[in-house]
Amino acid sequence: MGATRFPGKPLVDLLGKPMVQWVWEACTKSGISSEIYIATPDEEIQAAAEGFGARVIMTRHDHVSGTDRIAEVATKVPGDIFLNVQGDEPLVQAGSIAAAAQPLVADASLQMGSVWTECPEDEYDNPAVVKVVTDLAGDALYFSRHCIPFPRNPRVGIVKKHLGIYAYRREPLLAFNTWGASELERTEQLEQLRFMEHGVRIRMSQGAGSELAVDTPEQADQVREMMAARGYGA
């Protein structure tokens, strides 16, 4: 609720529902799990979430990132795989949520998963849009706010945009807080780099689409227009 650029944004009204409800509904449609919780430090969000039927886990106020918050959840909820879907992504697709988790379900050796989609050219130089490069197996090589790979020669492949959905096994998630912020993480302000610096592979899967996260009131207006055009809430 204390977002600097948009105070109260998780509960902003989008076509008659608070933003966090749209995210929760996408999670329920993903078919991945019946164990779905809204993790929050705010009593206002707790009340709203329980009002539309969601289960809530109250967490500390001092978490720096979503992964820090999910790591606390993992100390309270049993499970092998945890998914982190951020509450400011009201247009997130159920297919993207499923895509993040599926590799871990299929391969017990994988420790972490996430998703990418093709980056629009007008977002190449936007530092708010995170890019990822992958190896031939589909594992992330690096994430950056810069456009990677740099086109020293004519570009022969697509630019991959990272969608901020994560699946983690319990062990690396619990280890996350014990490692402390890493050098690359502090430089790029990207928490997933902490895992990579500690040798955790992140298997990247193609997501169902690139959608707009809400960080400002202006973006909330854009999302309302997109939702209305797509028939959301009809």
Strand and helix layout:
Elements: E1 13-14, E2 17-18, H1 19-29, E3 37-40, H2 43-51, E4 55-58, H3 66-74, E5 81-85, H4 94-106, E6 112-118, E7 131-134, E8 140-144, E9 160-169, H5 170-179, H6 183-188, H7 192-197, E10 203-206, H8 217-230
Parallel strand pairs: 3-4, 6-10
Antiparallel strand pairs: 1-2, 5-9, 6-9, 7-8, 7-9
Describe this structure in a few short sentences:
With 234 residues, this protein is of the alpha+beta class.
Describe this structure in words.
Strands 5, 6, 7, 8, 9 and 10 form a 6-stranded mixed beta sheet that branches. Strands 1-2 form a two-stranded antiparallel ribbon. By secondary structure, the chain is α+β, with helices and mostly antiparallel strands. Strand 3, helix 2 and strand 4 (55-58) form a beta-alpha-beta unit. Helix 3 (66-74) crosses helix 5 (170-179). It starts with 12 loop residues before the first strand and ends with a helix. The radius of gyration is 17 Å and the shape is globular. It has 8 helices and 10 strands. The protein has helices at residues 19-29, 43-51, 66-74, 94-106, 170-179, 183-188, 192-197, 217-230; strands at 13-14, 17-18, 37-40, 55-58, 81-85, 112-118, 131-134, 140-144, 160-169, 203-206. The protein has a single domain (9-210), classed as Alpha-Beta Complex (Spore Coat Polysaccharide Biosynthesis Protein SpsA, Chain A), CATH 3.90.550.
